[in-house]
């Protein structure tokens, strides 16, 4: 199994190479050279042990170049992050043909834990093979950074730099990043939004000055290894529902989680249509629904982890929907990066909508859905989950739908309290955060300042 780039890079990379690169050398994103066909019974594996399913999928996508032990360790960690307290797939049926998949049972109470707990041992295994050190840079709107810090803190092979937009993550998300005491972790607060942070990360990955002094990569969902860790739960949830090809409604910002569902369907899994639910930052939905892909300044919403106006993984969808046209994909994203305003062709629009649909959910609808979920089902949900459920309820015409619940409500107490009239119960993992010293290195919204901060940390 080899990997190529969405913009034309064709020198095959193994999984280890794609993992440590993060981005392809030409700025594109890695995808499999061809999508594999399982040699095992995928339906049976999806209904079986989650750890074994994960092992089989990792091997299918070439992760075994890192050795069987690395695959087993990664699968065990993602299994531990995924299953609920009873050790079962956390799928809850709330109405006829409507389920909620709770993806927040991991150490930081967010869906990012599954992939991040998996990618950390795989990264260590890849570096152990080469004897090299790695600087990881990641942008976060809250949950990615917290999950990455938890997964990589204390690593002997990795230095981790996390960029987050100052004042634009929830207080709990911030504490989960900034109270972890680890010499190999640097938290940087940027005077900007998530898209500014993500732009900095992409620029840093292409900096020759950094590359000359050691490996540099990312654990955002631009990294194929991150995305791969999210594929198993689509297959497991579909099997647990007992439904035939259930639709998945995914609350999304950077589109990585939704694309992982697309991959599960692509390899023959029992995964139906993928619907992306977004908040007011709806560049993705506008691109899919109208063909106009326009970059606006992100606005702050209750579902802060989705406050994204330039979703990186949209590039993978465009590549696949355009029949893997690297030239066409490069043209779209070179133009978007230069102008922030691209009109997609009619053929591409049709192809995109055949793969994924999307809808926008307002702040008012988000609050109303939080109240609906509690009044109707006795469930206290986070704003991101509410975005997905609001979209799912609009689409529920009798077909089976699984809505993804991506974080614990206690990570966003202010909005949830306002919607319900009472505060969500606070888990012990969050209670323990308060009172600890925070460490944040603040910088202006400037790519040179970001480069200087990373250079000083990586080589200090």
From TrEMBL:
GO terms for biological process: threonine biosynthetic process. InterPro entries: Ser/Thr_deHydtase_PyrdxlP-BS, Thr_synth_N, Thr_synth_N_sf, Thr_synthase-like, Threonine_Synthase, TrpB-like_PALP, TrpB-like_PALP_sf. GO terms for molecular function: pyridoxal phosphate binding; threonine synthase activity. Signal peptide: none annotated. Its EC number is 4.2.3.1. NCBIfam families: thrC. This is Threonine synthase. It comes from Asticcacaulis taihuensis.
């Amino acid at each position: 199994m080899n990997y190529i780039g969405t913009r034309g890079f064709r020198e095959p990379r193994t999984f280890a190479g794609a993992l440590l690169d993060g981005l392809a050398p030409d700025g594109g994103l890695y995808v499999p050279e061809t999508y594999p066909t399982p040699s095992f019974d995928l339906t049976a594996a999806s209904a079986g042990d989650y750890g074994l399913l994960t092992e089989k999928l990792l091997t299918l996508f070439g992760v075994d170049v890192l050795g069987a032990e690395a695959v087993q360790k990664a699968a065990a960690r993602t299994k531990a992050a995924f299953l609920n307290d009873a050790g079962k797939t956390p799928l809850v049926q709330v109405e006829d043909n409507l389920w909620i998949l709770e993806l927040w049972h991991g150490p930081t109470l967010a869906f990012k834990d599954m992939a991040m707990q998996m990618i950390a041992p795989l990264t260590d295994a890849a570096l152990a093979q080469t004897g090299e050190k790695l600087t990881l840079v990641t942008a976060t709107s809250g949950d990615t950074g917290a999950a990455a810090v938890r997964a990589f803190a204390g690593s002997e092979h990795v230095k981790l730099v996390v960029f987050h937009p100052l004042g634009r993550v929830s207080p709990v998300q911030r504490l989960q990043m900034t109270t972890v005491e680890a010499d190999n972790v640097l938290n940087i607060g940027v005077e900007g939004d998530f898209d500014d942070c993500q732009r900095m990360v992409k620029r840093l990955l292409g900096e020759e000055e950094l590359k000359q002094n050691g490996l540099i990569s990312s654990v955002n969902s631009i990294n194929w290894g991150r995305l791969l860790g999210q594929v198993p739960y689509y297959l497991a949830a579909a099997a647990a529902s007992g439904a035939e090809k259930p639709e998945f409604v995914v609350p999304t910002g950077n589109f990585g989680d939704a694309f992982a569902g697309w991959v599960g369907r692509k390899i023959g899994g029992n995964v139906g249509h993928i619907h992306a639910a977004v908040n007011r930052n709806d560049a993705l939905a506008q691109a899919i629904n109208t063909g106009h892909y326009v970059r606006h300044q992100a606005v702050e919403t209750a579902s802060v982890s989705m406050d994204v106006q330039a979703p990186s993984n949209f590039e993978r969808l465009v590549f696949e929907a355009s029949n893997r046209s690297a030239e066409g994909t490069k043209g779209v994203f070179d133009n978007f990066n230069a102008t922030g305003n691209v009109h997609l062709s009619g053929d591409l629009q049709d192809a995109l909508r055949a793969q994924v649909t999307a809808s926008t959910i307002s702040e008012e609808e988000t609050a109303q859905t939080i109240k609906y979920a509690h009044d109707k089902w006795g469930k206290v949900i986070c704003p991101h989950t509410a975005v997905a459920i609001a979209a799912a309820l609009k689409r529920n015409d009798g077909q089976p739908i699984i809505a993804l619940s991506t974080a614990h409500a206690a990570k966003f107490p202010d909005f949830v309290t306002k919607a319900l009239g009472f505060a969500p119960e606070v888990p012990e993992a969050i209670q323990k955060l308060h009172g600890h010293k925070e460490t944040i290195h603040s910088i202006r919204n400037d790519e040179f300042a970001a480069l200087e901060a990373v250079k000083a940390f990586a080589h200090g």
